[in-house]
Structures are given as C-alpha cells and as structure tokens.
Write a structure and sequence with these properties.
The structure is a single chain. Helices cover 43% and strands 15% of the residues. The chain is rod-shaped, with a radius of gyration of 50 Å. The relative contact order is 0.11.
Length: 403
C-alpha cells in the first residue's frame, strides 16, 4: 500500500512540475489573438468581463448561451418548449459573424417583444445591418495606435477613455439619423460615431464598434473599465443572456449552461499537456500492476492446548496446600481410567488375575505391573498420606508407561 501511495505521489510531483515547466516555456510569447472567448485569460479574452457580470447584475439571472440564438430564444418563447420565457437583455461581444441568418431573425423578434440587444463588434450580420439600414466604414490611425472612446452625454465624460494597440477605428458611415440615437464616438478630432441606439418595435438594439474595450487587457489597464460601466449604464437592469464564444452544433435541448468546465482547462496548453501526461502515467501504472497478485493470507494461530497448563496449575494448588490424599486419588483414578480406555479392562477388582491380564495386554514386565497395582491397593487402605507416597506412586506409574 505504501508503494502505491509513493507512486501516486511521484506522478503528482511530475505532473505539477511539467505543468509549471510547460507553462513557463509556452507563455514566453504573448498571444494577442482577438478571440473574445469568455473562458480565455489571454489579453484579448473576456474572462474578466464575464466574471464581473455576476457583480454588475448581482440581483439578476445570468444565462450563458452555448447554442445559436434562434434555437434558444425560439425554445423559450411563448410558443416554444423551453423551461422559461426569455425576457431581458442579450449581450454579444465579438464574433458576431457567427450569428446565423435565422438567429438574426429570432433576435429581432426577441427585441420586438420589448427586450434589449447589445452587440459590440467590428461588423454585424447583414440581416441586422439591412434591417436597421446602417453602414460601417473603417479609418486607419495615421499618427499612432491610440483611439479615444467618448460618450455623447457630457455627464458621462468621467467614463471616457482611450484604447491603445489600435491600428484604426470602425464607425457608422450611415444610419437612421431620425429614429436612431448617437450615444458615443471614436477619435476626438472628427468624432466618428461608434455607439448607437436603435429602437425596434417595443424593444431597443444597441450597437457598439469597439469590442476590444471589453477584453482582459483593457479592463485591467488603468481606469478603462469605467468606460464599460458607462456602456452598461444604457442597458436596463434585467436578466441577462450572454452569448458564448463556444457553440454546440446540436439544436437547443433545454440546457443553457455547459455541463463541465473541463474544456476551459484543455484550452490552457500547460494544463492540457499535464492532463494528458497524467492520464498516460496512470495508464502505465495500471498496466504494470495488472498482473494478478496473491492476496495476503492471514496467519491463523492454532488454539493453544491449555490442558497441560491447567493440570499443572491444579496440581500445584493441591501440592502447595499439602493435600497429598487428593492428588494420590486423582492420579490413581486417571491411571485406572487410562487402562480401561487403552486395554478395555475392568478395574473394579485389582487381583492377581487382573495383573496377569494387564501384563499380557500391555506388554509391560509383570514385576512392574505387579508393583504399581499392589501399591495402589495398599494406598486405598491407608488413612494418612505423605509426600513420599505421592512421589513413589508417580515413579511406579512412569515405570509402567516407559515399558
């Protein structure tokens, strides 16, 4: 057992050591890919923002959509088969191109029922831009890679911020200036619109063109998180539907959340290799210990024969109390009982005929048999016994058995 624990402990040390080593070696270069993955801790992942949603909407239900919006929102509409009626705010950060044509139609229906859509990305699905009659353009930052993000409402000026590592800005080239409201700009020089509100039937749609502000890098840098607080202040305080980077291909079956978080660990390269290595080592351990082993046989100690010890104890008791008569009687009775059992003889009359028969059956010399039998007969007639009588009787009986 100790050997097994030692092997398991050794495997654990190896796995932790390799995880640390791999983490150091694989993370020397920073991955600046704009994944907008809510499980990613990389600079342009959304893990910080995703975790903070619970604080920002602490009194509200937050559901994460791992299916296409058309599957989920239809299933949870009044005519659907979901376990609740979807009402609240839908948020999508980046990867808006993954929204299918059917999902755009379902999202518009969702908004039209008095709900809210908030999408922040560089581009939006054509079904959405065509419906809202908006056009998006792009302009390169010629002097540097810094852009200013500001709100139109002067009361929100403390929430304005800048964003670096930004080669250019996307902005709304055309939009419905009558029905749609400008909420924010990018670039202080010409104030290009990058945040608008578009009413849609009973609900509202908010479109924003700088998703990088929601990423880990920008939220944790200086006070840029305040700009996000300003953005979210436009949204109503209600239940939230966060559209995940991950998507199940199967239609929605009633489960919104993933059943396991193991996928996130497998995305971390060091954890992934440590996990695979631990599985390999566990497999090797099982293979090399698969041979059949003899179960440890318990040693069962035989019961001790305490008869002799008991006899010695009783004898010592009688001997110490000088009860020679009782000892002589017991020794005589035991000797005669032994003769009855071994030679099938009647010991009630110890005469010459008995001596002849016992000599014949036992093969002991007649003189020896005669000595012990006659001494026993002699002791029967005595009234007082001494230690010498006991010793002599014992000697005669031993002579009989020694043949």
């Amino acid at each position: 057992m100790k050997k097994i624990y030692l092997v398991i402990g050794l495997i654990g040390v190896i796995v932790v050591g390799l995880a640390t080593t791999l983490d150091i070696s694989f993370n020397r270069t920073v991955d600046w890919e704009e994944s907008f993955n809510e499980k990613s801790n990389k600079p342009y992942g959304l893990s910080v923002f995703y975790k903070e949603l619970k604080t920002l909407y602490k009194d509200k239900k937050i559901r994460t959509l791992y299916h296409q919006p058309d599957s989920y929102f239809y299933a949870n509409s009044e005519d659907g088969y979901g376990n609740h009626i979807a009402k609240g705010t839908y948020i999508k950060i980046g990867n808006a191109a993954t929204i299918t044509f059917e999902s755009v139609a379902e999202l518009l229906y969702f908004a039209g029922q008095g709900n809210t859509l908030f999408i922040s990305d560089y581009y939006f699905p054509s079904g959405l831009t065509d419906t809202l009659k908006i056009e998006i353009d792009y302009r390169i930052n010629e002097n540097d890679s810094i852009s200013n993000l500001t709100f139109k409402n002067e009361a929100l000026e403390p929430y304005n911020t800048l964003i670096d590592k930004n080669e250019g800005d996307f902005y709304f080239e055309n939009y419905d200036t009558i029905n749609q409201t400008v909420l924010g700009y990018t670039n202080n020089l010409d104030k290009r619109v990058n945040f608008i509100k578009a009413p849609f039937d009973k609900g509202n749609i908010y479109l924003h063109l700088q998703p990088k502000i929601f990423t880990n890098y920008n939220i944790l840098k200086d006070n840029r998180y305040k700009y996000i607080e300003g953005l979210l202040s436009f949204l109503p305080s209600e239940d939230l539907y966060f559209d995940s980077y991950f998507k199940y291909q199967a239609p929605y079956n009633g489960d919104v959340e993933k059943s396991s978080e193991l996928g996130w660990f497998l995305e971390q390269r060091a954890f992934k290799w440590a996990w695979y290595l631990s599985l390999l080592l566990a497999l090797l351990f099982i293979v090399f210990n698969a041979k059949r082993r003899q179960r440890i046989v318990e040693i069962i100690k035989p019961l001790k024969n305490t008869t002799v010890a008991f006899v010695k104890t009783i004898s010592n008791l009688y001997f110490e109390t000088k009860d020679h008569k009782t000892l002589i009687e017991k020794k005589t009775n035991y000797f005669l009982e032994k003769i009855r059992l071994d030679y099938n003889m009647n010991t009630s009359i110890l005469d010459a005929s008995f001596i002849e028969r016992l000599t014949s059956k036992s093969g002991v010399k007649k003189t020896t048999v005669e000595a012990v039998i006659k001494y026993i007969e002699w002791l029967k007639n005595k009234r007082q016994y001494f230690e010498s009588n006991l010793i002599h009787l014992n000697k005669l009986i031993e002579d009989f058995y020694s043949k």
